[in-house]
Amino acid sequence: MSKELRQRIAQYGIRAKKGLGQNFLSDSEYVYRIVDAAELSSGDVVVEIGPGPATLTPHLAEAVGPEGKVLAIEVDESLRPLLTDLCREYPQVEILWQDALKVDYDAVTAPYRGDKPFALVANLPYYITTPIMMGLLEGRFNLSHMVIMVQKEVADRMLAQAGTKDYGALSVAVQYHCEVKLVTKVPPGAFIPPPKVSSAVVRLNRRRQPPVSVSDEKAFFRVVRAAFNQRRKTLLNALGGLGLEMTKMEMSERLARVGIDPGRRGETLNLDEFARATDALYR
To answer: Start and end of every Ribosomal RNA adenine methylase transferase N-terminal domain (predicted)?
Structure first.
C-alpha cells in the first residue's frame, strides 16, 4: 500500500463495506497501469465510477489537468469528508453522489466536453459489473473508451471467442459494441481487503459501427440470449424459445439457407453467424 493511501485511510477512518462490494485498489503499480491505459490528455473529460478512498482519482485529475474534468460517481456517504477535501485540492474533480446504474452519462458530462466524447475509468464492484457494463453499452452514450477493473472471470468472458468455454452472451454484446483488449491481470493482494478471486483490467474502445450488419438489433440480441440460455441444446431447439410463428422445419430451412447448421450449439456461432441467423429468422 502506498504511504499516501495508508495515511488517507487512517485519517478518515475508512473501512471497505462488504455490502457495497468494496475492495480498494492499494498497489500503486496497477494504479499507474490503469491511468496509462486510459491515455488521457489535458482537457479531457473522464468519468470514474467508485472512487473509494481516491486511489485513482488524483492521478486522473493530474492526467486531464486544470483544463479537464473528473466526474467521480460514488454512493458511499462515509467517503464524503475524504472526497470533499480531495475536491479542494483538485478543483477539476467533482463528486456525483449518485447510483452509477441510474446516471445519464451524456447529461452529466455535456457541460464540460461540448461535442467531444468522454472516457470512463472504473474499479467496478463485482456484483454489479454486468448491469453497469450493459447499461453503458446499450445507453448509446458519447463514450470513446473505458478502462475497467473486473473479476478475471468476467474479463475472460469479454475476450472469449466462439467455441470456447468462456464464450457467451456477454462476449457477443461487448464485442458487438467495442474492441476489447486485456491490459493486465491483478492479484488479490493488490486490494484492501483482498478479494477471493483474481481481477483483470480491460480496455474497451467503443466502435463507431458494429463489426456486423443486422437489420434489427433488438432481434439480434434476442437470438443471442436464446442461444445461450440453454447452452446444451442445439441451436434449433434453443431458438424455439423465441416464440416465432414458424415450425421447426421452417426454422431449420431458414438457418440452412444462410449456411448455419441448425444442429450446432449456440456457443459455436460467431457474431457474423448470429447476424445471419437473425436476418434469416426475422426477415
So the answer is: 30-208
Q: Which three cell numbers stand for residue 141?
A: 452514450
pTM given for the model = 0.91
Closest CA to 48 of 29, 68, 67, 28: 68
Grid cell in block for residue 238: 434453443
Residues at the binding site are 23, 25, 50, 74, 99, 123
C-alpha span between 258 and 267 (Å, rounded): 18
| Greatest CA separation for the chain | 69
C-beta atoms surrounding 31 within 10 Å: 20
Provide CB contacts within 8 A for 36, sequence distance 6+. none
Q: What is the chain's mean pLDDT, rounded?
A: 92
Annotation: binding site for S-adenosyl-L-methionine: 23, 25, 50, 74, 99, 123
At 63, give phi and psi (nearest 5°): -70, -40
Q: 97-154, pLDDT tens digit by residue?
A: 999 999 999 999 999 998 899 999 998 878 788 899 989 998 889 999 999 999 999 9
Rounded Cα distance between 175 and 184, Å, is 19
